[in-house]
Design a protein that fits this description.
- The complex is a heterodimer.
- Chain A is α/β, with parallel strands linked by helices.
- Chain A has 38 helices and 38 strands.
- By secondary structure, chain B is α/β, with parallel strands linked by helices.
- Chain B has 2 domains: 150 residues, Glucose Oxidase, domain 1; 202 residues, Rossmann fold.
- Helix content of chain B is 26%, strand content 30%.
- In chain B, strand 11, helix 7 and strand 12 form a beta-alpha-beta unit.
- In chain B, helix 9 crosses helix 10.
- The mean pLDDT of chain B is 93.
- Chains A and B meet through strand 11, helix 9 and helix 17 of A and helix 3, strand 15 and strand 16 of B.
Chain lengths: 1094, 374
């Protein structure tokens, strides 16, 4: 059936900031959807608060709104843009929920907007636990025994009827958020209270636990004439009990018989029909009893999901693109399969390889949290790998996570050595067994230890319930490792003597050169050269959706060790783009945005683009982003292998975050031409001594500092420059292991951690500039000229990681002279470092002195934010400068002036890590960001707060409790709030200070003093805003409790004075101008052009 | 033991012997399904083939008696990438390796099956010789050419008519039941199956519909069939290029219109031939479980399992108003399902496997309706 011509204007809702459970996969799906809609000629309107996305690039939709994802804002957009339809299935749970509320509140009906992709009935049947259960019963699909609780008593009754253990799932929550497993009545009650509170509709499903069952997923699509296809099956290696987003997953399923497979397919068809999806896709999750094959359905996501992104990348089938086409009325047989270029999308992809997905966790950022994984998702990113067997895919996958591991152990990084394992002490056995039994991020390594200690497959199965098939494959890796060791040399310098055939086998099992070097007592370089001499090189195979049945038109490759290479390099000029790997805190979607732009720029310049990346959630790993895609780990070995085949003129390493930079120097040494700023310049900026020399030469001031490799040295430096000091390792991103220390004791503690973070490089110690204003600058240079993209003033004071701080562009409190100094210094450093491409500089301003904190000659996290604020695609221009163009050639020779204000705000995952203190510091903790854009600071700031989920109140009660240092500054804030009509409450210390300044305050007892205290207020919804600054070096247990309760009960929480000031500013704006202005990016950019023309 | 496969075009693929030792020749056929190795090997339509599984991991879930699609494996040889050394599934009774040995299948693993599949895709389906005995390439290639000559029918008229190249194949006789077998059902119709290689799954579906089944040897003639007074006749799947085909075509010709009939895959091709049509061999056959078919008059269709190398040549049979094409292949537009009210038959080029273990495929339901109506 042809596409619908009764609709012309379509509104798409994005997924907002990156949070745990919702990452770049929705940029991938949203971007594909935008392209697909425009391909079909529809006028496309997009709303998303996340500036770091490709989808919010002004070229992707006709009208792009970077505005908060709320019913109010979207209603305004609907009024203005008058869409005929809304596509809500591509923006994750956020987009779906928002559309659902728009429907429920009658807004869509009022303005005549139809929901396409999934209608309200379909969404309800999948998301509403009661309706879902009824629907599944009607079609005879088994479910775990369960009941819906809308209050605690009801929940306890249901729970006791079913029996423990139980799983609780709050309705309408993403990423299994709030889900928990409970083993007794007490836990049940606690989890019910929590679950009812966080569920937006106050519903919790109390469910029989099927822990230990196999978890099987299918990606299913259906069009409006009822054609149904399965994209792929996926088997979670971690059995039920671990959230699928945290599970290690393999595609296709490995341990299902043909009959079982068909049975699942049949169930999927029945389910997608019953749910009523009439033009789109769904992810269906099942549990299967491994003892008798019994199947229960776990859940259905009637939308694009993380799993569908994975399924797309795993099979080559562009689910988001096809789902969009189906949503506008096309049928599967009408949509071309772009991979083959001649068959249609009405088929089921079949693969001839094994796909492995592994998660990236950041427990190291939250040291107080358990490393245990369960039904509430904690992973911040994921990597995918492809191999011709499971073992190869597994080891490549571990390499891809960039956690410093080069495969499944034997890479010199094992926590427990073979020697210790041989002794099999009682404690160790217990530790290993526990780590195998209780799911955690290191479980696979412990299975390896277990096998080495002599645990049998059956024993490990009983502990972990991980299917024996997977365990045996791991065992095969371990067995081969033992065999390889027989060829171990005594001396590192001896010739390698492993036989050719055996080495080939090791490579087929996925062993990296680094692992082999460890096992053979040699070096990675020596292994590599020996291997090449033996003619053992990887070949590249195609991902083609059809196991070779049809010729593939899209060059999407993975490596393996076999006979024939399918990647035929062209004679064109080509450039390698090294991507950012899995998302993590500190390195996320912003860098993928930059890599995509590099690819677009190369296309515009007529140069072949070759992308290397291993993150399945991204736009960069879409098969049509670059001319060629290599889905490979970003290690020296894997990149050099591609270089050997492709022979590019150079590689771009400054866009993928720290990942490519960490391997830039060895790659350059191995002969790869690094485009743009030279590795030497990068080193000059990162190497503290060389950097200091440069600043001295340029007469630029930096905080007093020094470097150290031991505590003794560090103490000497610290005492010279005076506490407090900031300590950090060199060459890290996201402030990993960075801390502010106030005395020798603190220094000694943090030295240990910091040294662990970067053993080969010294520790940097800086004087900490208390209460300074921090400033971020993104600039672009061509070797001669440097143009600043944006100067951003941080809202939070110095000491808060720049990735966590809110920022405003243009600066709102810096004087002209300060800005001039910043500009002058930026130009000077760009010139001195001979920067070609992007550069980010962090400054601190204190007492009118401009200090430079650090220079990063690479793309920063703020590049997409700045690009969108000023309407200039900085990453694209930077790529062109790397190819030899001057800024003059590119027409970007002067800074843009804008007459709007853009605010960047960060979002945090504290709620996922119970017990972790929700305060900001030099170590980055945020997972994503939003942008608020408006004509004034106050309006832009309030938008950024709303977009980040900080629902600042316009009336009600404020609780204030600040440290002594902040007591003076908080007076003004409290006064303002009182004037705005807020009721002020405070603990005695803060209250004294406020009362002295004639502010009416209700005094609340401290937690141990009596009740009702602030915790009771929080629980009873009697407080609407909390301002609580941490009391310095040692935080009090009381404070932590207050902050974590605020997070748990979603009370807006502000932990810095500067943040409080900005918030009050925003609240005032909100009271005076309650109606939100909306304006598209395209309109803002048009205005910039106008100013510029004048 | 180092083993090798050599194709007609001389290309050589190395691997390790994992089944019984031996030397086998046959047509090399790809199967692109990710599951179903046991079912595929015991599908009589694959008799005499050298079967390549493009999915690289085989044997993961072992084998079990209940997954046999016929009494044994009829393939000449199997080629895979990696054999699973352990099997894991609650239904598994034995390992893939023991299955190979019990079924006496010559098999090799560690083959770059991806490259092999691409070679077949580009060069078309061809014959191959597989040896686990360390023979020389030239010797094997010579043997293969001699074998090819021995298969090629010199009687050019028949060759032109059927477009068969290997008409000396004699597999139907091998796979068919030797004598009439009765499988009693409930009160349903009596269905005769001319056994040229029917799958157990199809028998199961007929039984689920309450049918009484008469399994007939492939060479049962038309008179004998009429004498048995079945309510309907199924011409199922089976080897496609075979000595027995011309005889069966005659039988079908005599019965068309007289008994309600259902053709499946090869059976569908036989009905086409009986109608006077010709067949055409695909460069690469349809062997897998992801083939889309749809109604010619709408966008509605479904995904099917298929296992055939020939299709009906539509140019050879025109102007038959009494035959209605009800489904076509979405990609190459070939006939996937046809019906005739007048001649009382339905035939499917695809395998009408059941959508669920306890359900019956629509094609069977249509067939039973034809029986009811006549």
């Amino acid at each position: 059936m042809p596409k619908r011509n009764d609709i012309h204007r379509i509104l798409m809702i994005g997924s907002g900031p990156i949070v745990i459970g919702q990452a770049c996969e929705f940029d991938y799906s949203g971007s594909q959807a935008c392209k697909a809609l425009r391909e079909e000629g529809y006028y496309t309107i997009l709303v998303n608060s996340n500036p770091a996305t490709i989808m919010t690039d002004p070229g992707l939709a006709d009208a792009t709104y970077i505005e908060p994802l709320t019913v109010e804002t979207v209603t305004e957009i609907i009024k203005k843009e008058k869409p005929d339809a809304i596509l809500a299935t591509l923006g994750g749970q956020t987009g779906l929920n928002l559309a659902f509320f728009l429907m429920k509140e009658g807004i869509l009906e009022k303005y005549g907007v139809e929901s396409i992709g999934a209608n309200v009935e379909a969404i309800s049947r999948a998301e509403d636990r009661e309706l879902f259960k009824k629907a599944m019963q009607e079609i005879g699909v088994g479910m775990p025994k369960s009941g819906i609780a809308t209050n605690v008593e009801e929940g306890i009754k249901i729970g006791l009827d079913i029996g423990f253990p139980l799983i609780l799932r709050p309705a309408y929550c993403l990423g299994g958020f709030g889900g928990s497993t409970v083993y007794n009545k007490e836990e049940l009650e606690q989890s019910l209270i929590k679950g009812l509170e966080i569920s937006p509709v106050s519903q919790v499903l109390v469910e029989q636990s099927v822990m230990g069952w196999k978890e099987i997923e299918y990606e299913v699509m259906r069009d409006r004439v009822d054609n149904v296809i399965m994209i792929t099956s996926m088997e979670n290696i971690d059995p039920m009990g671990v959230h699928t987003g945290d599970s290690i997953v393999v595609a296709p399923s490995q341990t299902l018989t043909s009959e079982e497979y068909s049975r699942f397919v049949n169930l999927c068809k029945r389910i997608i029909r019953k749910i009523g999806i009439t033009g789109g896709g769904a992810n269906i999750q099942f549990g299967q009893n491994p003892e008798n094959g019994d199947i229960v359905i776990i859940e259905v996501n009637p939308r694009l999901s993380r799993s569908s992104a994975l399924a797309s990348k795993a099979t080559g089938f562009p689910i988001a693109r096809v789902a969009t086409k189906l949503a506008v009325g096309l049928t599967l047989p009408e949509v071309l399969n772009q991979i083959t270029g001649k068959t249609t999308s009405f088929f089921e992809p079949t693969v001839d390889y094994c796909v492995f997905k592994i998660c990236r966790f950041t427990f190291e950022k939250f040291p107080q949290s358990d490393r245990v994984i369960n039904t509430s998702m904690k992973a911040v990113g994921e990597a995918m790998s492809i191999g011709r067997n499971f073992k190869e895919a597994l080891q490549k996958g571990i390499r891809s996570t960039e956690t410093g591991r080069f495969g499944l152990g034997s890479d010199g990084k094992d926590k427990i050595t073979d020697e210790i394992l041989r002794h099999k002490s009682k404690d160790l056995t217990k530790e290993v067994q526990d780590k195998i039994r209780i799911p955690n991020d290191e479980r696979f390594f412990y299975i390896r230890y277990g096998l080495k200690m002599g645990l049998s497959i059956d024993e490990i199965y009983e502990l972990s319930k991980i299917d024996r098939w997977f365990l045996d494959n791991i065992k095969q890796i371990v067995e081969l490792e033992e065999k390889i060791k027989k060829y171990r040399n005594k001396n590192v310098k001896s010739k390698i003597k492993i036989p050719q055939e055996f080495l080939m086998k090791a490579k087929k099992y996925g062993f990296s050169d680094r692992q082999l070097a460890c096992l053979l007592n040699s070096t990675e370089k020596a292994v590599r050269s020996y291997r090449k001499k033996q003619n053992i090189k990887p070949v590249y195979k195609l991902v083609d959706t059809c196991s070779g049945e049809f010729e593939a038109k899209q060059p999407y490759y993975y490596s393996t060790y076999e006979t024939e290479n399918e990647s035929k390099p062209s004679a064109n000029k080509k450039v390698l783009i090294l991507g950012g790997g899995p998302n993590r805190i500190g390195q996320g979607i912003e860098f993928d945005y930059c890599c995509c732009h590099a690819s677009y720029a190369l296309k515009e310049e007529g140069i072949e683009s070759i992308m290397v990346n291993c993150n399945p959630e991204t736009v960069s790993t879409d098969y049509d982003t670059s001319d060629k895609l290599y889905f490979e780990p970003l290690t020296i070995e894997d990149v050099l292998n591609i270089v050997d085949v492709e022979k590019p003129i150079g590689a771009i390493v400054q866009f993928g975050g720290q990942t490519p930079l960490n391997i830039a120097v060895p790659l350059a040494k191995a002969g790869l031409n690094i485009l743009g700023t030279s590795p030497d310049s990068i080193d000059k900026a990162e190497n503290r001594k060389r950097f200091q020399q440069m600043l001295k030469k340029l007469k630029i001031i930096q905080p007093e500092n020094g470097t150290a490799t031991s505590f003794k040295e560090a103490r000497k430096v610290a005492n010279r420059i005076g506490y407090p000091v900031v300590v950090r390792p060199s060459y890290v991103l996201g402030g990993r292991a960075m801390e502010i220390v106030y005395d020798d004791e603190g220094l000694s503690g943090f030295m240990e951690k910091a040294v662990e973070a970067s053993p080969e490089r010294p520790i940097l110690i800086d004087k900490f500039l208390e209460d300074a204003i921090e400033v971020d600058v993104d600039a672009i240079a061509d070797g001669e000229r440097c143009v600043i993209g944006g100067i951003m003033e941080h809202i939070e004071q110095a000491g808060i990681h720049s990735g966590d701080s809110a920022m405003v562009l243009p600066p709102h409190s810096l004087g002209k002279d300060i800005i001039e100094t910043i500009k002058k210094n930026t130009y000077a450093m760009a010139k001195e470092l001979n920067v070609i491409g992007l550069m980010n500089i962090q400054y601190a301003v204190k007492n009118n002195v401009v200090y430079v904190l650090e220079v990063n000659p690479r793309a920063s996290r703020t590049v997409p934010f700045v690009s969108k604020a000023i309407g200039v695609p900085l990453a694209k221009l930077a790529t062109k400068t790397m190819l030899g163009k001057t800024l003059q050639d590119l027409g970007f020779t002067k800074e843009k002036e804008i007459n709007h204000v853009a605010v960047k705000e960060s979002v945090f995952p504290f709620i996922r890590f119970p017990g972790v203190d929700a305060i900001l510091g030099p170590e980055m903790k945020s997972t994503g960001e939003v942008m608020g854009i408006d004509s004034t600071f106050g309006a832009a700031y309030i938008k950024s707060q709303i977009a980040a989920g900080q629902n600042l109140p316009t009336s009600g009660t404020v609780f204030i409790s600040v440290n002594n240092q902040d007591k003076r500054n908080v007076v003004f804030i409290a006064k303002k709030l009182a004037d705005l009509g807020f009721k002020i409450t405070a603990t005695s210390g803060t209250a004294d200070a406020l009362m002295k300044n004639d502010i009416e305050v209700q005094v609340l007892p401290k937690l141990h003093e009596g009740r009702p205290n602030i915790i009771d207020f929080i629980k009873d919804s009697k407080v609407d805003l909390i301002i609580n600054t941490p009391s310095g070096k040692i935080t009090k247990a009381d404070e932590v409790k207050i902050r974590s309760h605020a997070i748990l009960y979603s009370v807006p929480l502000i932990t810095t004075i500067s943040g409080a000031q900005a918030s009050v500013n925003g609240i005032e704006n909100l009271i005076k101008k309650p109606k939100m202005n909306i304006k598209s990016l395209q309109e803002y950019h048009k205005d910039i052009k106008n100013i510029y023309d004048k | 033991m180092k083993s090798m496969l050599i194709l007609e075009d001389g290309s050589l693929f190395e691997g390790n012997s994992i089944g019984v030792a031996g030397e086998k020749m046959g047509e090399v056929v790809l199967n692109t399904s990710v599951v179903g190795y046991q079912e595929s090997m015991t599908d009589p339509a694959n008799a005499g083939k050298i079967l390549i599984f493009t999915y690289p991991l085989i044997g993961n879930y072992g084998v079990a008696k209940k997954f046999f699609e016929s009494r044994r494996s009829f393939v000449n040889a199997v080629i895979i990438k990696e054999e699973s050394r352990m099997f894991s599934n609650w239904q598994a009774e034995d390992s893939f390796n023991n299955f190979l040995k019990k079924e006496k299948v010559v098999a090799i693993s560690e083959v770059d099956t991806r490259t092999l599949a691409v070679r077949i895709r580009n060069g078309g389906q061809m014959l191959g010789i597989l040896s686990t005995k360390g023979a020389k390439k030239d010797v094997l290639l010579k043997k293969l050419n001699e074998y090819k000559q021995s298969l090629i029918n010199e009687a050019t008229t028949e060759k032109q008519f059927y477009n068969f190249l290997y008409l000396k194949n004699d597999f139907i006789k091998l796979v068919s039941t030797k004598k009439i077998k009765e499988i009693n059902g409930k009160s349903g119709p009596k269905i005769a199956i001319l056994d040229i290689g029917i799958l157990n799954s199809f028998i199961k579906q007929l039984r689920n519909s309450g049918c009484n089944i008469l399994l007939l040897p492939y060479n049962t003639n038309a008179d004998k069939i009429l004498e048995l007074k079945p309510d309907g006749l199924v011409i199922p799947n089976g080897p496609e290029e075979d000595k027995a085909i011309p005889g069966i075509v005659t039988t079908v010709q005599k019965l068309l219109g007289k008994i309600p009939m259902m053709g499946i895959s090869t059976g569908h091709e036989l009905i086409w031939l009986a109608l006077g049509g010709k067949l055409q061999k695909l460069k690469v056959g349809h062997h897998g479980s992801n083939y889309p078919v749809k109604s010619p008059s709408s966008y509605k269709g479904h995904i099917t399992v298929q296992n055939h190398s020939f299709i009906a040549d539509e140019d050879s049979l025109k102007g038959r108003d009494d035959i209605k094409i009800t489904l076509r292949h979405v990609n190459d537009n070939s006939i996937e399902e046809m019906e005739s009210k007048k001649l009382k038959f339905i035939s499917t080029q695809y395998y009408p496997v059941s959508p669920g273990s306890d359900e019956v495929n629509t094609a069977f339901k249509k067939f039973l309706n034809i029986i009811k109506g006549s």
